[in-house]
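On clarity, I found the account of how folds are encoded harder to follow than it need be. What matters is that the chain and its backbone geometry are given together, residue for residue. The format is easy to grasp once an entry is in front of the reader. For illustration, here is how one protein appears when written out as sequence plus structure tokens.
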Amino acid sequence: MLKLIIYGYSYGNRSSRRLERACHHNLSFIWLVSGLKPDYRTIARFRSEYKEAIKNVLKQSVRLCIKLDLVEGNTLFLDGSKFRANASIKNTWTDKKCEEYLEKISKNIDRLVDEAERIDRQEEEKESLVKIKKELMDREKLKATIQEIVKTLQETRKSSINTVDPDCVKAKGRQGTHASYNAQMVVDEKHGLIVSSEAVSENNDLNQFHHQLKQASAVIGDKPKIACSDSGYYSLEDLNQVGEDIKVVMPTQKQAQKENGIHPVKPFDKERFRYDSSQDE
């Protein structure tokens, strides 16, 4: 099972269902598991129960690459990529969406109650109230569910939550806005091998630089000399946590915007400041 998961990861197959299908149709997977066909639930349960052991094996793989001189660990590159979650963005709820739905449901409940009372008053009407009462119960159940979502939003202090996959976030990518995960990856310069990765529940890369660099350093067993990233990671509070022994190569957001021609740097912006020690008084 461990071979199946590690081999699947190396080819980008992270889903337990995809790994199950691969054991039925992909010859390399069939050979690897000796013709066994594990159920996706078995794969998911194994991964859940032995999560830490799998992480240790992956870390050992990186250290093996270092011994084989495939990874140097001197210069690391950080970047994030949006991976769509197995959930629809329609299931993502915000405070505003909950408020709108609760208002609409309250009006529908009032309408159904009034309709039930009207039919009761019409003695000659033979229609059963079972259908209306069932619809009323469904509306009240939906209202209770949405109120529970509102409570969860308040307790977690999240701006939104997806009822199918609570850990995913609403993120904008190249293919539009979807329920997604932000996959953080740290890559070594020599051969472009990934030394560390993590799926985080954030829709941008802010405040991820120090944490991801710390994780990569723990995997490699030493701090890098140089760490590089794009301006999406730029946060002075986060950068202050990086040791002075690591050279950080990262443009500010204004510098990146200048290169893209979005917002030119103005004459008195701090990006134009140059320190001249000879002018000190």
